[in-house]
């Protein structure tokens, strides 16, 4: 038997877990040499700030995977926009070579999928194994 942990805010009880993937502009392999670790720190900070649960995260040289639970009233689109916006601004400020390689750090698009029917363990393993593929 599978038990789902529900979260709640003042007026909603929910379980909204999302698998999110996005890439740097032109799928450039720029998330290396410390940029990846700093990006992870920024993502953790933003998730804590908006009270989103960061369940799993993997940063590859040319894309990012997140498994995150977000309050439905806040919205996954706002969470992704905040993470991408803040990380772009901070990373381009801290790593000036990113400015010379790319007009913007991230593409405008991203992939998002709810994790409703898939066992959470399966999605976590998929994200964890990205570095080993």
From TrEMBL:
Residues 13-130 form the Transposase IS200-like domain. This is IS200/IS605 family transposase. The lineage of its organism: Bacteria, Bacillati, Actinomycetota, Actinomycetes, Bifidobacteriales. One of its GO terms (biological process) is DNA transposition. It holds the Pfam family Y1_Tnp. One of its GO terms (molecular function) is DNA binding. PANTHER family: TRANSPOSASE FOR INSERTION SEQUENCE ELEMENT IS200.
């Amino acid at each position: 038997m599978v038990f789902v942990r529900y979260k709640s805010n003042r007026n909603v009880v929910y379980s909204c877990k999302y698998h999110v993937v996005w890439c740097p502009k032109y799928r450039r392999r720029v998330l290396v040499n410390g940029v990846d670790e700093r990006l992870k720190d920024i993502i953790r900070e933003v998730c804590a700030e908006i009270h989103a649960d960061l369940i799993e995260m993997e940063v590859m040289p040319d894309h990012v995977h997140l498994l995150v639970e977000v309050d439905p009233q806040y919205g996954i689109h706002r969470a992704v926009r905040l993470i991408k916006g803040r990380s772009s601004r901070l990373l381009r400020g801290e790593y000036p070579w990113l400015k010379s390689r790319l007009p913007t750090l991230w593409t405008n698009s991203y992939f998002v999928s709810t994790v409703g029917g898939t066992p959470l363990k399966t999605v976590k393993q998929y994200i964890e194994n990205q570095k080993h593929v």
